[in-house]
Design brief:
Elements (H helix, E strand, L loop, with lengths): L3 E5 L2 E8 L15 E4 L15 H11 L7 E2 L4 E2 L6 H12 L7 H10 L2 H11 L3 E10 L3 E4 L9 E10 H7 L7 H23 L2 E12 L2 E4 L6 E6 L2 H19 L1
Antiparallel strand pairs: 1-2, 2-9, 3-8, 4-5, 6-7, 6-8, 9-10, 9-11
Helix pairs in contact: 1-4, 3-4
Length: about 260
């Protein structure tokens, strides 16, 4: 049983799953965001040189010119630049309702250990310079990803990030300043890129087949052996259907 059958201008369009094994990864396309992931069993996202999440966060802090100025010690931690750290942390506590006594050494240690408070602090500073969304993965008889997380805590967790810097976003859209509308649009695009990559990981693609069809007594009749055209590797049912309709239009034009 096919997913969808649509009668269109004397043809029956049949939409179904396309079980293709050689589809090109969407991360090879021209994407807005950069997708950085880590996993012991899978190679995911864009190629990167970061060894883990901590390495990525530290590198992003360095890239945006925040908090650090060089490598020191055996822990490969960064030292802060000169700024009013006490005032900065007071602002941070207000923003995140943090009541404990918290020092830079705590931040350094927790960032190295991947703990929440340090990650929150790092992200707060990074988000002043880029749009960044988390990527979560659920693994159970296959894998699926999203930017919102999954209910099951045992088979799911964060595996990476997708981001674009404010400067790159302004260059892409030829803007001198960022607006709330543009930021929201960019976030939607990043989520769409994750959704597209998720379909690739799950092998969820669609195909169309086109057959000559006649309408008889409120029913449609076509021969499965009379295939006139087809198409494969579409990301959504809607995209497959629109391309099939365009193909029918072309076939009719060629008949004239």
């Amino acid at each position: 049983m096919s997913l969808q059958e649509e009668f269109y201008k004397g043809y029956m369009i049949v939409i179904d799953y396309d079980e293709c094994d050689d589809a090109e990864s969407p991360r090879e396309w021209d994407n807005l965001g950069t997708m950085i992931c880590w996993h012991n069993n899978y190679i995911l996202g864009d190629k990167n040189c970061y060894k883990d999440n901590t390495d990525f966060l530290e590198s992003m802090l360095y890239e945006v010119g925040e908090a650090y100025e060089g490598w020191v010690g055996e822990t490969n931690a960064f030292h802060p630049k000169s700024f009013d750290y006490a005032t900065h942390m007071t602002e941070w506590r207000k923003k995140y309702n943090y009541d404990g006594v918290w020092t830079y050494q705590d931040f350094e240690r927790e960032l190295e250990e991947g703990l929440g408070d340090a990650q929150t602090e790092a992200l707060w500073r990074i988000e002043d310079h880029m749009i960044i969304l988390p990527i979560y993965m659920y693994e159970h008889s296959g894998i699926t990803i999203n930017t919102s997380g999954f209910a099951c805590p045992w088979d799911s967790g964060q595996v990476g990030w997708i981001y674009i810097t404010h400067e790159d976003l302004k260059k892409e859209f030829k803007r001198k300043k960022l607006s709330k509308k543009l930021v929201s649009q960019a976030e939607d695009i990043l989520r769409q890129e994750v959704d597209t990559y998720d379909r690739f990981l799950r092998g969820e693609y669609y195909k169309f087949e086109i057959y000559p069809c006649v309408e008889e007594e409120e029913d449609y009749v076509w021969d499965d052996d009379d295939l006139v055209d087809d198409g494969y590797g579409f990301e959504t049912e809607e995209y497959a259907l629109s391309e099939a309709m365009a193909t029918v239009d072309w076939l009719l034009k060629e008949k004239k």
